[in-house]
């Protein structure tokens, strides 16, 4: 299983088929051919060097929350009430 990670477009390479994306100090070159050229600052889901989907701010917040929950569980500090706000009773 591959986990797609949101990364932000930082620079366009050549004609836009590739872009440099960043997240938390990590920078990598990804193929943009599936989603096309994107504006600087756009968040995209990436996996194995490929940008797969443009992420809107609401999706980004939910993904970041899920990644934080995963990190907390790996550190042995998971508390279900702190994560997945979209699944919590209102």
TrEMBL record:
**Where exactly are the transmembrane stretches of this chain?**
none
Name the Gene Ontology biological process terms. protein maturation
**PANTHER family reported in the protein's UniProt record:** HYDROGENASE MATURATION FACTOR HYBG (PTHR35177)
Short name of one Pfam family: HupF_HypC
Q: Which GO terms describe its molecular function?
A: carbon dioxide binding; iron ion binding
The species this protein was found in: Candidatus Dechloromonas phosphorivorans
InterPro entries, alphabetically? Answer: Hydrogenase_HupF/HypC
Q: What is the name of this protein?
A: HypC/HybG/HupF family hydrogenase formation chaperone
Family affiliation: Belongs to the HupF/HypC family.
Q: Which domain of life is it from?
A: Bacteria
């Amino acid at each position: 299983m591959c986990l797609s990670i949101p990364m932000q477009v930082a620079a366009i390479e050549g004609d836009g088929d590739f872009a440099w994306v960043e997240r938390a100090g990590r920078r990598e070159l990804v193929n943009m051919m599936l989603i096309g050229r994107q504006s600087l600052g756009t968040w995209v889901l990436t996996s194995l060097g490929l940008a797969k989907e443009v992420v809107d701010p609401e999706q980004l917040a939910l993904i970041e929350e899920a990644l934080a929950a995963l990190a907390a569980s790996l550190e042995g500090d998971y508390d279900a009430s702190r994560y997945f706000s979209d699944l919590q009773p209102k």
